[in-house]
Amino acid sequence: MKVLSVASEVYPLIKTGGLADVAGALPIALETLDIETRTLLPGYPKVLAALEGAETVLEFSDLLGEEARLLFVRHAGLDLLVLQCPALFERDGGPYLGLDGRDYPDNWKRFGALCLAGARIAQGALASWRPDLVHVHDWQSALVPVFMRYALEPEIPSLITIHNIAFQGHFGPQTVSALGLPAHAFAEALEYYGGTSFLKGGLVTAHALSTVSPSYAEEILTGEFGMGLEGVIASRANALFGIVNGIDTDVWDPEADGAIARGYSAATLKKRAANREKLCQEFSLEDHGQPIFCVISRLTWQKGMDVLAECVDELVADGGSLVILGSGDAELEQALQAAVTRHPGRVAMRIGYDEPLSHLMQAGSDAIIIPSRFEPCGLTQLYGLRYGCVPVVSRTGGLADTIIDANEAGLAAHAATGIQFGSVSRQGLRQALRRAIRLFHDTKTWHQIQKQGMKTDVSWASSARRYAELYNRLLEKG
Asked: What span, in angstroms and rounded, lies between the C-alpha atoms of 303 and 370?
């Protein structure tokens, strides 16, 4: 089977969130199931700089009015198709935002061009390779099935995966004609409150929809979590599937991780102490033998960081320490920085993202806090399980699907892998953190939770099989 995957970011080349991890790891996992994936992504400067030996396999003289070419290269175990279009992608800012922190005003054209290129590849533009199926991710690639439906033929089976329905690709109504799509495509697939939604177009035209956890698939059918698209999704409920994400267990391997001070396993948990010591040095923390909590997250309302900021003083009063890695809303950054100022040696923060440091934080912290208001899947809790860093999570989406609560039943069955709480509020998180601190001081029970988490299969093996089954189902339907 040949699959064309289309994504706006792919680890290890370019990453702003979990989408990149999935787009980078799933194709490798599918290889073991005899599924050949080629991944189409934009030729950002960072991507082009990392590639060696790329060959031009296709040239576009008019891709939404721009000249472009398609490069093929094998990199980090991935077969990549890189869309090199200097006018659209070779910029000094990030993948979606300029240096001023604002969305590029021509994002509709940038990702419209990516989607049009993807549709043409699906149509057979590459003489040497033609996909059987297209798998697109989030709004940035959601127009691939739209182009196949309304502008190009033939239309091959397609799957769209929703990583976060909050991001929908909203643009003006004139976008449809500027993309070369017929007027009726607007009314039938793309119209959203008078404007154009790339994501809605993909949800309407793709042959199947998936989310990155079973619980999130149920949640987005509701007004609370559907972000205005719940009606569209409900109309496609029979084609909706929830498949939980995995992680790359070679990259995230506590026994062989070069980014941490000392490797360890579930059988050698005492070796984690070296990583705790290194973490304290890195963040200038005082180590009083109390639990160290970490947060590795975008600092946003969705991630519950406002609630965390309200709980920091109580967490410290109860004996805990906290290290934070992330960036996001200026007000939340300031609120958390104020907590650092109030509690030197007990609370520390690093603004930005640092992949090696995130590994050390998972290896050296005792628990990771993830108080999200909604979480399609989440990956940091899976890294936490793998590293014996006990997840403290809100009961939503993929967090609910992947963490077994350390309640009486969970502990008695030796099945508990973390701590869940229901209400994303100061009281709800405070109670969960206090429970974590009590459990931490019961060393035998805490080690039991750590070891059970480390035994959990968080690899892509099971999830890749689910995707393979879904691909086959789509091909059987034609």
From this structure: 7
**45 prior amide bond cis, ω within 30:** no
**Residue from 118, 160, 14, 119 nearest 75 by CA:** 14
The answer to whether 328 and 352 are in contact (CB under 8 A) is no
Show the tokens assigned to 450. 């750590």
Q: Rounded CA gap, 459 and 246, in Å?
A: 5
Contacts with 272 (C-beta within 8 Å, 6 or more apart), sequence order: 262, 264, 363, 364, 388
Cβ proximity of 119 and 147 under 8 Å: yes
DSSP string, 401-417: HH--B-SHHHHHTT---
Strands 367-370 and 347-351, bridge-based pairing? unpaired
How are strands ordered across the β-sheet holding 321-326?
347-351, 321-326, 292-296, 367-370, 390-394, 419-421
Residues in contact with 281: Cβ distance below 8 Å, sequence separation at least 6, in sequence order: none
pLDDT tens for the 478 residues of the chain, in order: 999 999 999 999 999 888 998 999 999 999 999 999 999 999 999 999 999 999 999 999 999 999 999 999 999 999 999 999 999 999 999 999 999 989 999 999 999 999 999 999 999 999 999 999 999 999 999 999 999 999 988 899 999 999 999 999 999 999 999 999 999 999 999 999 999 999 999 999 999 999 999 999 999 999 999 999 999 999 999 999 999 999 989 999 999 999 999 999 999 999 999 999 999 999 999 999 999 999 999 999 999 999 999 999 999 999 999 999 999 999 999 999 999 999 999 999 999 989 999 999 999 999 999 999 999 999 999 999 999 999 999 999 999 999 999 999 999 999 999 999 998 999 999 999 999 999 999 999 999 999 999 999 999 999 999 999 999 999 998 7
User: Across-strand partners of 324?
Assistant: 295, 349
